[in-house]
Amino acid sequence: MLEIKNLHASVEGGREILNGVSLKVKAGEVHAIMGPNGSGKSTLAGILAGRDGYDIASGAVTYDGQDLLTMPPEERARAGIFLAFQYPVEIPGVNNMYFLRVALNAIRRAKSEPELDAGQFLKSVRAKLKLLEIEDDLLQRGVNVGFSGGEKKRNEIFQMAMLEPRLAILDETDSGLDIDALRIVANGINRLRAPDRAIVMITHYQRLLDYVVPDFVHVLSEGRIVRSGDRSLAGELEKTGYAGVGS
Amino acid sequence: MSDVAQALVKEGYKYGFITEIDEDRAPAGLNENVIRFISTKKGEPQWLLEWRLGAFRRWQRMQEPKWANVHFAPIDYQAASYYSAPKQKATPKSIDEVDPELLKTYAKLGIPLHERAALAGVAVDAVFDSVSVATTFKDKLGELGIIFCSFGEAVREYGDLVRQYLGSVVPQGDNFYAALNSAVFSDGSFVYVPPGVRCPMELSTYFRINAAKTGQFERTLVIADRGAYVSYLEGCTAPQRDENQLHAAVVELVALEDAQIKYSTVQNWYPGDAEGKGGIYNFVTKRGACRGARSKISWTQVETGSAITWKYPGCILEGDDTVGEFYSVAVTNNHQQADTGTKMIHLGRNTRSTVISKGISAGKGQNTYRGLVRVQPNAANARNYTQCDSLLIGQKCGAHTVPYIEVRNPMARVEHEATTSKISEEQMFYCRSRGLSQEDALSLIVNGFCKEVLKELPMEFAVEAQKLLSVSLEGSVG
Known about the structure:
The complex is a heterodimer of chains A (247) and B (478).
Chain A: E1 2-11, E2 16-25, E3 30-34, H1 41-49, E4 54-63, E5 66-67, H2 73-78, E6 81-84, E7 91-95, H3 96-110, H4 118-132, E8 142-143, H5 149-163, E9 167-171, H6 179-192, E10 198-203, H7 207-211, E11 216-221, E12 224-229, H8 232-240
Parallel strand pairs in A: 3-10, 3-11, 6-9, 9-10
Antiparallel strand pairs in A: 1-2, 1-4, 4-5, 7-8, 11-12
Chain B: H1 2-11, E1 23-25, H2 32-41, H3 46-60, E2 84-86, H4 100-108, E3 122-128, E4 131-135, H5 138-142, E5 147-150, H6 151-157, H7 159-165, H8 176-184, E6 189-193, E7 202-208, E8 219-224, E9 229-237, E10 244-247, E11 250-255, E12 260-267, E13 279-290, E14 296-303, E15 308-311, E16 314-317, E17 323-332, E18 337-340, E19 343-346, E20 352-361, E21 366-375, E22 383-392, E23 398-407, E24 413-422, H9 425-432, H10 438-449, H11 451-454, H12 459-472
Parallel strand pairs in B: 3-7, 6-8, 7-9, 8-11, 9-12, 10-13, 11-13, 12-14, 13-15, 13-16, 14-17, 15-18, 16-19, 17-20, 18-21, 19-21, 20-22, 21-23, 22-24
Antiparallel strand pairs in B: 1-2, 3-4, 5-6
């Protein structure tokens, strides 16, 4: 589904951050990409979702065989890619439900599916809330406006549930969460695992992996994947720290 | 929303067409004979002719105001024609007698004038160049004693009311453009709501400039008698023409004891092209008097059109416990300039005013908020809250905030908050990463920014206003 080949990239006009990343992700798989601060994790997430401000020096990224790097962010979203933001953005004055409905319908239109009216949409919202076992207290507020850190992350997972992506990239979704919030978010992610859906979790800590068990774990260091393994690699990291898992 | 918004973004100014119709017009130029011509055409009584001539004599001694933050070549007031009317055999008695070309024009604008096709709950007075061509739902309103008609008709049928209130809020010599309007005003709407009556439908006037080389100088007078309530809206469009056209209107509102007037404007005059050629000069004086105790006047405006906008709808809070409100969204894109805001004059005790202004600048647009809050010595416990937010899109536009605060009563409380922000790339990226196109993302963020103002508009017009915002910002990102 996703293939990254020897990707070299830098922040526009700045130093190189990704230094030859290669990765293959198949449908149904859950990958965890771990690494210390500054290793290039968020840059990788940003490049996959189409954030501006990066120079791609060389390498390629394909998604379902298409060249991902030439697609604008909205086309990627419509093709089934979802980025859960590390810092979800506030949009004052825009109702959270309305935002989600506009987004969902934009994606449905792209897939030539009929748009949902307010009633159908509400029904779908209720079903997803039930699936994720989360509260609906955030829906009538402005998008992320005045949300706590935990609420913002919960809202990202809820968006993911509604938009039903084929490839979800979760950027530090566990950061800043207390243990209860972490459990809710992790529970949500687990329920969204599906045979036709791949999930890439980017995280600093291994504690998320206690709740969402990945099929593969990769260690990103200085812009390259220096080790890959199964979930036991995460346990090893916990003991030795990133310093001990060098190349 | 996004479908419509998207279609609109591509379509640009869609009201720029010209209606081919025979017109009856005054020769170019402005002098006492032209004013007599207008007055005669309209069959006006002597007192009104005298009033016009008085205003004209004042105007001749006045200078154009220079303090606004707008720049334009000098206007040749002798080059324009001050009266243009579509030729009709006689005043149409019913909609069936109105020239079909005119009906077609309004249908194209989305304003059906046949009552059976009209928007439910909205009565419309349609003003085409210098005359009112039709007013809908008059009979229904008449049963409640509500008068809703063209200004010309009001002068003929309700002369005493007009004479009593005309110029009582905006005096003839108030400013250069108001004086000009008082001398040459053509048509407009007149509303009177009798004591204790709550007007059951939105009253609406739709202004259309069609003829070339003319100005539009309409005059609107709304009177809410004791305990009455009325909600009034106006919409405006004009054809796309290369020369600038002048629109200098005067609106006066009078609210007596316990009365409420809600006045909403969706202004979409032709803004000129992307290079700044053409467009309407919108120099307008609007003011309401809360004359009786506990009365309330609320202005809501969405200003997206015009090459230049110069307007400051204000409230004179004369009665005790009166309330004035001003909610504004002003958009300037390409070469548009807006200098707009409000005047809140606190005279009575316990008077309160609220000002919420949202300025959006894109392209090379310049947007100035200019607002006066004046608390006079007798206005004990007066309160004002002002919030001015500016949003910048791109690198070449400007936002300016010029508050004037004059407080002459020590018990008054006046607050002013102002913010300026740029549309953030992170907000745009967040929306796009959820599947929204660039245009839809911008429209969503801008509509969110304006929400506090848009929610003050009556439902049908809020939708219209949202679409307009998207169209007006066409081409400002990407």
